[in-house]
Design goal:
The protein has 341 residues and is an alpha+beta fold. It is 54% helix and 6% strand. It starts with 19 loop residues before the first helix and ends with a helix.
Length: 341
Amino acid sequence: MPISEYEPFCPNCKYGNPSFLLTQVQNNQHRDIQVGTRTKFERLLALALKNKGIAFQANPLIRLSACIKYTPDFLIRGRLIVEVDGGIHDRDFRKTPDRIRQRALEKLGYSVYRIRNEVVASSPEKVTEEVLQQYYEAFDAQVGQSRSLLSKARNIENMMSSRPEEGQVLSVAIRLKDYTDKWEYDKFCMYLSDMDRNFVRNPCHTERLVLLLLGLDLTTTYSGKVNFKNFLDIFMKGINIMSNLYGHRARIYLINSFSITAANFMKNLVFHGGPRIKPGIVVINNIESLVEHMSEFNNCFSNIGVRLEKDDVKSECRHKLEKLYSIDREKYLWLSNWVNT
């Protein structure tokens, strides 16, 4: 159960959680949900794992990025994540976040094994054998690497010392946006030090700052389409900054943070003409234009493991359409037909 779904703001930088309102709409009882509460199927598997002598952590806290946290059902010996899924995970609003989180976890070096409630109920002992097999397969996959992502990661969480409000991060981004050389590591650090010498002590709000600056620097081509090639070039400079400041794990965190919100980013291009911080720079008003933008995005970003899935974009757009008034929805009939096919 992901903690971030039930928190309206990131506790480290106070950034508003983009999935919070979605959860609130879909589950009016979200305030009553206790993070870490196990289902009877999870308790059954936990007992079977214990009887088998398999070491595990139940509901451990895992960071997908500096701001986004997640608590899987089980973590086996620090490598294999086991999720015990019920029927709710077959519903569209669960499939998309499940897919996105799994990609983020795999980028961090974890393997993910999903098992159904009914399978656990029918034969928990057999499931433990499958879990053990999955663990050894995950272990074998990492053998031969000089150092795994999991073992060489710096402890970024210990650096979360200051917690500025999102407005402060936005203020710094606005002040930095006109510095043409801000993406050079030394200049980035110098400018930040001049504004707030303690800013870089918290990777969470530095990550937010980089993402905001990326949005502010988004441009279009002469043909009026988003210039994703230029966007990727800047993104790679952002990766370099985060890696130099906080180590290799911060690189993965930044990629994960963008990957997790990529479908939402494309939705904002459709409904707002750009990211929320820089709307109105592009017009996407037909399927051909949307598909072309998605294709160009994937051509540029798939090399670093960020890819838009059509179903994820459909899910984001469908939810947005459901919130529109009927009169506003009429101009998106082309989109309604697409998301429902």
